[in-house]
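Known limitations

Structure tokens in this collection are predictions and should be treated as such. Users comparing against experimental data should check residue numbering before alignment. To illustrate the layout, the record for Carbohydrate binding module (Family 6) is reproduced below. The input appears on top and the generated tokens appear beneath it.
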Amino acid sequence: MRKRTTVIPLLALVTLALPAPATAQPTGTVTSGQARFQILSPTLVRSEFAGDRRFEDQATYNVVNRTFPRTPYTSRTENGWLVITTSAMTVRYRVGSGPFRADNLEIKTAGTTASPWRRVVCATGQLCEAEDQQREGMLVAADHPGHTGYGFVAGFSYANNSVTATVRAATAGRHRVVVKYANGQGGDGRHEDRTLGLGVDGQAARQVTLPRTTDWRDWRQAEFEVDLTAGEHRVSLTRRSGDSGNVNVDSLALLTAGQAYPAERAVDDCRFGTTCEAENGRISGPATIADEHAGFAGTGFVAELRGGTTLTQRVTSVPAAGTHPVVLRYANGAGGDGKHEPRTVHLNGQAVTLPTTANWATWATATAQVALPAGTSDLSLTCPDAGCHVNLDSVGLASTAQHVALGGYRRSLDGYTGTNGDPKLYPGLTHRDGWYLLDDTISALRNGTPRADRGAQPYQDGYLFGYGQNHKAALGDLAALTGGSKLLPRWAYGVWYSEYIDRTAADFRDRILPAFRQHGVPLDVLVVDTDYKAHNLWNGWRMDSSKFPDPQGFLDWAHGEGLHSTLNIHPSIQGDDPDFAQAQATAKGKLAKGSCANCYVFDWGDPDQLRAYLELHRKMPTDFWWLDWCCDGSGSSLRGVTPDTWINEQYSKIGAFAFSRGFGSLQAGGYSGAGPLQTGPWAEKRTTLHFTGDTSSTWGVLKGTIAYTSAEGVATGMSNISHDIGGHNDTTGLRGSETYLDNGQVRYTTKMPDDMYARWVQLGAFQPITRLHSNHGDRLPWQYGPAAQASATKFLNLRERLVPYIYTLAEEANRTGVPMVRPAWLEHPGSPEAYSTADSQFMLGSDVLVAPITTPGDVGETRVWFPPGQWTDYFTGRVYQGNSWATVSAGWDTMPVFLRSGGMLVERTSDVANDVKNPADELTVHVTAGAKGEFTLYEDGGRKLSSRTRIVQDGDTVTVHPARGWFPGKVSQRDWTVVVHEADGTSRTVKAAGKPAQQKVVIRLR
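Generated tokens:
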């Protein structure tokens, strides 16, 4: 058997070096003073501003590639503006106008004009909201009352967590930096005075103290003196290695002697011709910023405007005095006054009526003609004393475009029950108005070294995506720029068995795998959850010899059976663990106490601690690691690198890939509410599949999974998304089939109702990863009644047969950025129905439409929208015409799955026990009669050897064009079967005699 050797990389920090001055640039680069633009594709332009003219040409940790095919473009200067135009977008920058902001840089794409860059500079005497400024390693939270703006910067829990504000001193001399903060009991259990480092313009910071407050709702001010020259400066609050951190910062202000803490918030301008977010304006009065209703643009909305509220936008670049259209996006549900009726607001004194909307989650627009002078002025929206009781989302100045996210992502769905509201998703790449700014300013260089500090000089580095409705182009740009979603080994796209329950090597060998074989259920991956560990079941670092007496022998046995295996890891270590002393010695004494009892945690950004952490894995052989990072306090102090991205890359070096969380870390949020750090979506997909966490077993979670998978894919480019198929936490209390010991008490596992189980496995068969998992709950077909068992067995075998097709889509995702599971609007962006059905159906590739049943009962139904074309039910043969709706019903033995006419679905001809030991020498192609189309099947040998078999249908002929050169070594002869789906709902099968795998095959269908 193959013996596995675990190689632990020993990392060293690279000496920080200043980048060399920019030299002559290749074609595709336009430089205008301190601004530089690189035209990477028709839909992607890099915008870089360097006050010191030192442009950055090295790859960054997020942006690993800027080598794109040459893109035609034009560049000219007119009326003081630099104008760069490609076939898809135009970028305009006012020459010599300084750093990018709303007033001096705009893009136009597909009829939309936008100001992507927002730069808030806080003048002396202005309120500087921390959430408006540059943050590193920190999340914006809003769970404690009393803050201003839409939240506060939370935590300072790890070294190098920081917030940096850009301030403008009106005069030279002594100034006061006043910080509004709260200091309650921290995550380390202490309630004491805390320290941070206060720095100016990158100079050595001095330690400042923030005294403790009563609790986290008690906001106070602390002030510190600084000497500044007149002009712009960067003021930073940073947790350094000697600081205690663990505070929340709401805002700060630069003040002169005697100035009171201000109420007027510093904001960026609102450029005429664009749509600006209401929450970014100046707000006075009782209104607040909220985000609890879905469908808003930007980061939130101004909530239920009440009497005395004023919202002011500073409008610039009005071309001529006169009346101009102002578009308000709002929601008008039942107000706090109990009324649900049209409401009145005033725009610069003009009354504007806003009709009712169905509820607070329904958004509408109203347009008013408002007189504005030429140039720059204020636009004020006010409420009468009685209140307007509406939520305001955005203000369009001669613009109707709305920057509403399509899809979204989240580090985890932990705690999601399906009955407690939809989980809040964080916007990613794709938006309805067709543009996005990927801000890469603070990311480290590719080797993990922070970028050079530029002192007081401004620096911005961001990528302008202008794709209109060509969302696939945007995803392709993202994949080329940051790296595509990792192509996992082919076996990873088969069937996984995982369960949080105490299992032994003997259990897997003598009971579980034989049961899979006996019942005809395929299996590719065995997940060994946390109870295999010795000393401590949560964070032990040796395999319990009573459960796994021969760890390498267990892995060899799995390989001999055609399986691969993973071990669960939690990233901390107990102080009395037998391996702790060596780990602490390797870490040179730097492991720190965590918040859990007697545990120590790791700073993966420190080379010694990272080495200590990785060396703990040596004694536990496995194919890859499951970093189940939810509740431990480990993290990374590396500047400009998200901790998930960093540690997952290290795991990918000691295994096939990382099986982990994504998009940030818990050092930026709690167990059930963790949000992303800024760079998460853009780098994480290169090394991992995303484990979405501990949800509940409910119909609501089942339904929510449909929308979430495709939403995350189009928001981040991540294709490998792994849900707990069946949900994690029991909600029914139904007794299962097994017993286990819990603190000496014998307990039964739980199970789902048979209908829920059957439907969940059906959905799982068409997800990127099919991983059966639970918290001490039954997930195996033979643990359910005959009908549910038959259904689950059927669909798990179907999944295994589909592995060649799924693997081809996975390779496409890696190469093109288009995820395997996708919303219909990605294929049909011009169809409104494609957007409205994103939560009830999805595409698997471009040719297969899946509309899962998510309601109880022996027979379920769902309303399906069929995109343009003709669609054939895979199971029943019924034909549906495109651009139509139909209610489709299905028992447990079928589900609504449809094949597009002209599309092809390739699968194994027969059921197999696993992928590894069963060469794909018999394949079946599903086609529709008389259609034209093609499909290219991707296969590889795991050694950078690959082949692409092109299958072409031309009416009544299917031709197989095998790849030249290398072909899968185990497949010397291949049998082809074609299933022809007729327009009348019948089907027929045509078989081709087996021929050498590299020989062209022509199959006549009649």
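For this record: The chain has five domains: 29-117+435-468, 122-255, 274-397, 490-822, 919-1005. The chain is about 15% helix and 35% strand. Please report discrepancies through the issue tracker.
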